[in-house]
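Journal club prep, notes for RB
We'll compare a predicted complex against what the paper describes. Inputs for the zinc ion case:
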Amino acid sequence: MLYEYTGNLHIHTTYSDGSGNIGDVVMAAKKAGIDFVGITDHNTLQSYREGKEGWYDDVLVLIGVELNTRYNHYLAFDVKEDIRDYTSNPQQTIDEVNKQGGFGFMAHPFEKGSRLVFGGKAFTWNDWNVKGHTGISIWNYCSRWRDAATSIVKGFYCYYINRNYQAGPDDETLRKWDELTQTRKVVGIGCSDAHAHRVSYGFLKLTIFPYEYLFKTVNTHVLLGRPLKKDFHADKRMVYNALKRGHCFIGFDFYWNSRGFRYWAEKGKTRFLMGDGIDLSDDIVLKVEAPRMGIIRLIHNGKLILAKKERFITYTVKHKGSYRVEVYSKGFLGSTHPWIYSNPIYIY
Ligand SMILES: [Zn+2]
Ligand SMILES: [Zn+2]
């Protein structure tokens, strides 16, 4: 039996450049129906020091930090002390996080930027020789919106009309992820990068990407072996362990909620979750169950090896490597769009 919790990660508040406080984030999480949030203000753990982590009714608030400024943004969790800006030396960033017993993810490594926002600046990850990071945020919703907003019309179109116009993670990030997972475990998560920016044009006041809007888009769903018990410290450990192990998947939850998606391996009577590793033998079967009919795609070492319109598939493993799953579903006006991304199962 697995217990699934839906979380939205990478959120900015008034402790950095977000417009809402933690109460606003919690309120939005309740309205969006998600279970936990991961706050990551820029270069500060002030809210953590003020004791703002914890359960707020049914919403678990976890506090991490987004490190670095111009490049190499790194989302770190389970850290207690502030870490300096090592923008030009991201290995140092990763090492400092690990030294504190924390873990982290590259935030938006291949974002392209839009000339409409920040004068076209992109905050890319520039050093791929680094070691020791837990994983990558493969889908950063706000980065992908900016990538797609090449004109004001397109910006409005993908904001108001087709929320998945940008069609999932960018190819470069997926390619890099697939390359890295052939050598070691690299956990994929999905993020919103919520700021709830407030802008005003005369009398007209707008919030761009309010928290609630984003909490219904790209979420990371964790799978736990027992339910959370409103025991904050134990619950935080469980969610963090699931993220570190890759016992999680990414869902674009606006058109169809991805809750209920499962991908696992069976070897005899033993079950392995996504994120786990198994030694190759001739009796390993991969199984995928989607919450509704979709196109299930199985990807081995970056290559598509199976695509079927089904709710359930099985596949007998023959080779070593990393096996991950994508599911495409119907979205805006019946178009097919990327919906779910699993973590890989690793066959050694
Ligand atoms: Zn960032
Ligand atoms: Zn951010």
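Talking point for the session: DSSP finds eight helices and 20 strands in the chain.
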